[in-house]
Amino acid sequence: MLSRKLLLSTLIYPSLIAVFPATAQAENPAEFATCVEQLKSTALQQGISNTVVERDLAAVNYVERVIELDRRQPEFSESFATYFERRVTEDRIVRGRELLAEHRSLLNRVSKEFGVPPQYLVAFWGLETNFGGFFGKMPVLDSLATLACDQRRSEYFTGELINALKIIDEGSITASRMQGSWAGAMGHTQFMPSVFLRYAIDYDGDDKRDLWGSLPDALASAANFLRGIGWRKEERWGREVKLPNGFAFENAGLGQTLSLSQWSKLGVRQANGSALPRVDMKASLLVPSGHQGPAFLVYENFHVIMRWNRAEAYALAVGHLADRINGAGKLSREPVQSPRLNRDQVMQLQQALNEQGFAAGNADGVLGPGTRAAISRYQKSNGQIADGFPGKELLEQFGVVTE
User: Fold this and answer.
1) Which residue from 218, 241, 339, 371 has the highest number of Cβ atoms inside 10 Å of its Cβ?
2) CA 235, CA 283: separation in Å to the nearest integer?
3) Residue ranges of the chain with pLDDT lower than 50?
4) What is the CATH number of domain 2-73+137-201?
């Protein structure tokens, strides 16, 4: 999921990959010192103080584990059912409700100022760091310097390293306390340094933007970020819905948007069977585990959540977790497990779809919206329920053998 965050940062801040000159590449630790010297020069040119450059940047270490994690691709793709069930757990719901009550005064104040309801802030907090239980243990400067000196994404991580040094330079945190993920995400809300600089705020009045030690700063910064990327006040993320028999599933997917009145005319109702709200809102329909699993209508705030993390499963988990923390019940239909597929199997499926004229796009081994849309078109052309779900029977039709 973290790689999706890195993509988001480059989309919001494209200048990050254009401002910085090419850095000497370190193919092994022996070349790292040369690269760091060039990074020091770049940092000074970008206005970082000599003290921070010589004290903190000069002391960075090459971390081979960071390169291993950057290169490692999941052997198997995680199904929506597995992803969802591992993240929206009863323990997390109970703990989220406890924290919602414990920090009600702070959350209400932040919500009033930024327009983001408390339960969403707690849900993000829960998914990002398990409510502050794990920030990551890697020194951020070491991670970012290692990646800046690696050829794969040197320009981007050079920019993030400079941003991290700016955070230290402004006095928000010391280098020794700046710990986070292997790719540099930090604090309660796992902000990358570029996001920190633009959206982190001092909310407790101590003249520091502290996303590690100050919960007021962390939650207010999360709300400020959400507002900055388009959160719509007093609108929900979406809702679980009930579909009629014979529903045309080719209407599903984020690429297709209808008004609530149009969805109502297609027979879509709330999960409890009542009519959809009579409000002027646009929505897309998602069926992440096929026609036998839950269905969701998602609104503009769902897209905002995806600007935080560009994954439909993540956004669905945030939305439902927020609802559960706020007192809602379980889904009326549980997610359905799909076969575990490795990248080679997904590529085989994509290539087969392309060969048969169903345009799954580049065979990259990622089972994304484009591949699911291609599956849906194949299903419709063969008289099957066109839900885009890669079930075992469909995979067998393409010769993809699963366990």
Assistant:
1) 218
2) 12
3) 1-2, 11, 13-18
4) 1.10.8.350
Domain with CATH 1.10.530.10 in the chain: 238-325
Listed residue (291, 302, 324, 314) closest to 83, CA to CA: 314
Residue range 268-316, pLDDT digits in tens: 999 999 999 999 999 999 999 999 999 999 999 999 999 999 999 999 9
How many angstroms separate the CA atoms of 395 and 397, rounded?
Answer: 5
240 is catalytic: no
Residues facing residue 298 across a β-bridge: 238, 284
Residue-wise pLDDT for 105-154, tens only, equals 999 999 999 999 999 999 999 999 999 999 999 999 999 999 999 988 99
Q: How far apart are the first and last CA of the chain?
A: 25
Class of domain 238-325: mainly alpha
* 133 burial level (CB within 10 Å; 0-12, 13-18, 19+): exposed
- Of 142, 101, 139, the C-alpha closest to 122 is 101
CA distance 363 to 354: 9
Q: Tell me how far apart the alpha carbons of residues 87 and 350 are, in angstroms, rounded to a whole number.
A: 28
Q: Which residues pair with 242 in a beta bridge?
A: 269
Nearest by Cα to 326 from 38, 101, 167, 140: 101
pTM for this one? 0.90
Active-site residue, from 31, 37, 54, 128: 128
